[in-house]
Design a protein that fits this description.
By secondary structure, the protein is α/β, with parallel strands linked by helices. A 6-stranded mixed beta sheet has the order 1-3-2-4-6-5, sandwiched between helices. The protein is globular, with a radius of gyration of 16 Å. The structure holds uracil. Uracil binds next to loops. The site of uracil (URA) has 11 residues, from loops.
């Protein structure tokens, strides 16, 4: 995982818990996004979940509530998880590439992601999930390869250096715009369910 340079001068390796990390992240001002949003959307879920989901960044509803995937895309995500027998708070932990809402829901700029990614990397280390689902091209490009295309990469397992299995798939918001993407996402999440069940054998 990660061919993208991220800000290594921001060393969070001494932070020992998700709660401590969250407290620090809430006062982050490392990029300009914080000036235009209501607050930091750190992430939420089961702190011992084996499955982590990573999106792009908070939208308007997430910014209002301070929670990831709280809007329409989040409702669809909950339905997708339900269809494979999972419940977000019990079985997953959800975070985003950037923790502050980009104005007008634009894609986060490379420098914004670079500054924010150390939070996410430490979140991943502390959570130590077995599986990660990357929701959309922004998560794929920032965490795996800036040249990667979600249309090509989705549906195939990747593996991080530390052994985490990574499944890229379309972002739920893309499904809302294009219902033709429902079938591939369904297929991708069935693969996730199969791996998830194997973890509990
Ligand atoms: N889209 C995302 O990528 N993340 C959210 O938290 C909400 C919508």
């Amino acid at each position: 995982m990660n061919k993208v340079p991220y800000s290594t001068e921001h060393d969070l390796s001494c932070i020992g818990s998700l709660d401590e990390l969250k407290e620090m992240a809430l006062s982050c001002r490392r990029c300009g996004l914080r000036e235009e949003c209501s607050g930091v959307v750190f992430g939420e879920g089961n702190p011992v979940a084996r499955l982590m989901l990573i999106g792009e960044g908070p939208g308007a509803e997430e910014d209002r509530q301070g929670r990831p995937f709280a809007g329409k895309a989040g409702q669809l995500l909950d339905q997708i998880l339900g269809a494979i027998g999972l419940e977000r708070f019990e079985h997953t932990y959800i975070a985003n590439v950037v923790k502050c809402r980009p104005p007008g829901n634009r894609v986060p700029r490379p420098e914004e992601a670079r500054q924010c990614l150390p939070w996410l990397y430490r979140q991943i280390e502390l959570l130590s999930p077995a599986l990660i689902v990357l929701l959309g091209g922004t998560a794929l490009q920032n965490l795996v390869d800036p040249q990667a295309r979600i249309t090509r990469a989705r549906g195939q397992w990747l593996q991080s250096k530390s052994g985490i299995k990574i499944m890229p798939t379309y972002h739920p918001a893309a499904l809302l715009r294009d219902p033709g993407k429902k079938r591939p996402v369904w297929e991708d999440f069935q693969k996730v369910r199969d791996e998830f069940l194997l973890l509990h054998l």
